[in-house]
Amino acid sequence: MISAVRQTVYQAFGLRISSEIPLPELPLSAGGEDRAGADVVIATRVTDRLGDELEAVGSNFARIGNRFLFLIPETAFYCIEDGQRITVSPLAGADPEKVRVYLLGTCMGALLMLRGVLPLHGSAVEIDGKAYAFVGDSGAGKSTLAAAFVGEGYRLVSDDVIAASWADGGGLPIVSPAYPQQKLWRESIEQLGLSKENGSYRTIYRETAKFAVPATEGFCDGPVPLAGVFELARPQGEATIVRPLPNLERLRVMLLHTYRNRLIHRLGLEKWHFKAAAGIAEQAKIYQLSRPQAGFTAHRLVSEIIQTIREGEKDR
């Protein structure tokens, strides 16, 4: 069971988040412990009411008025209210780490959408003052590729959830940094030379073999414009192929690789989602990247992507 503690104010996804649940992955807010200025408040409550409401509608996910409720079995009930308050009701015997994983994952993805921020499923790094995102199916190598960029001296903007929004003046969409942590498989950690001399990184939670790797020193600390997106396709052949995508394919990439896109219908945000995805498809350069089937190719892909970006800048 997660025990409630005093509210701590964190910074992530461009939001000041005041939470009763300790979130050690997140950096503390530069604005201090002033809860009054928080954009989002997270509280814990043991209650059967959320379960009763979901049972009444016959679903584990439901939008009821100004609230979005969902259940992760054997973990917790979550309730997002007005895109500003999250109530977490852990189930008896729930793994606290797993409760936190879904709070920072599915719950945060839904909250961002309710606030008009498009969450993309992928990793992003800062290159020449601009954000470039790597999206793709699970296991495509998004986090590994971003970690290879960090190893080359570039800064991490986000891993797993990329928060894209629009500035009041228009132009390129803006990506707000998530938090300084990456989720990497053991093989990637070893290939990238990130293994610890003493001990190992902690697993994300007990059901997975992914590890939480801190990226504090190579983390971007402010919002950056989203200039490009690379879709990582299924590995094939022996060559690395990077190709710019035509308009309809660009839109497909944005719609398909929205984080937790199965929630969009339940949130009633279909029209908003199409408009937001089309906005990025129109403004950012979008490519598809196919890598070789054999070998560890992350370092080679860094060079290919940098070359593609440099050539794209020359063509402007």
Q: Quick one: biggest sheet?
A: 7 strands, mixed
- Helix tally? 8
Approximate helicity band: 25-40%
The separation of the N and C termini measures: 55 Å
What is the ordering of alpha helices and beta strands? EEEHEEEEHEEHEEEHEEEHHHEH
- Write down the overall mean pLDDT: 89
What percentage of the residues does DSSP assign to strands (E)? 25-35%
**Helix-and-strand structural type:** alpha+beta
Envelope shape? globular
Strand segment tally: 16
* Unreliable residue stretches: none
Strand order in space, largest sheet: 1-2-3-7-6-5-4
Query: Over all CA atoms, what is the radius of gyration?
Result: 20 Å
Describe this structure as you would to a colleague.
- By secondary structure, the chain is an alpha+beta fold.
- The chain has eight helices and 16 strands.
- The chain has helices at 49-57, 96-114, 142-151, 186-191, 247-256, 263-267, 270-283, 298-315; strands spanning 8-12, 15-19, 40-44, 61-64, 67-72, 76-81, 85-90, 118-127, 130-135, 155-165, 174-176, 181-185, 210-214, 224-232, 241-244, 285-290.
- The strands form three sheets. The chain has a seven-stranded mixed sheet, sandwiched between helices. A five-stranded mixed barrel has the order 8-9-14-11-10.
